[in-house]
Specification:
Length: 139
């Protein structure tokens, strides 16, 4: 395994998952199989998340949309935190979640919004203020 991939994995994991209190997937995987956990992490975080074809905020908003439609709330919680860590505003994340109602249904949207609100409450970012609701390009 190249040192470059290992370094990208560490950098991307630090960027996305700093200050995440919840169990991270790598920790779960490692508790069952250390070698497979490393392989998963190097591929997912070091090769997929670290790709520079699209910006990190865009990548995280896409991830939030997919996890919302799939109703994968544990992973969604993690990636809402990652989206905030890479500069997405709470309002942008909410808008992406609302957009998914057409494809995933209102119940999935409601569950995702509750997850977003919970993360924002934990971070002291709820209720939303005007300043917190700004889009990235407005800052």
């Amino acid at each position: 395994m190249s040192r470059d991939i290992v370094e990208k994995t560490k950098q991307t994991a630090a960027l996305y998952f700093k200050d995440v209190a919840d169990e991270r997937p790598f920790e779960l995987w490692r508790s069952f199989d250390k070698d497979l956990a490393r392989d998963f992490s190097l591929f997912i975080t070091g090769q997929m998340y670290a790709r520079e074809k699209i910006p990190h905020p865009t990548r995280q908003l896409i991830t939030v949309a997919a996890l919302t439609v799939l109703s994968r709330l544990d992973e969604l919680r993690l990636h809402i935190q990652a989206a905030l860590n890479v500069g997405c505003s709470p309002q942008e994340i909410a808008e992406v979640i609302f957009q998914t109602a057409v494809y995933g249904g209102v119940p999935a949207t409601n569950a995702a919004l509750k997850t977003l609100r919970s993360v924002l409450e934990e971070r002291g970012m709820w209720p939303l203020s005007e300043e917190r609701g700004q889009k990235i390009e407005d800052r």
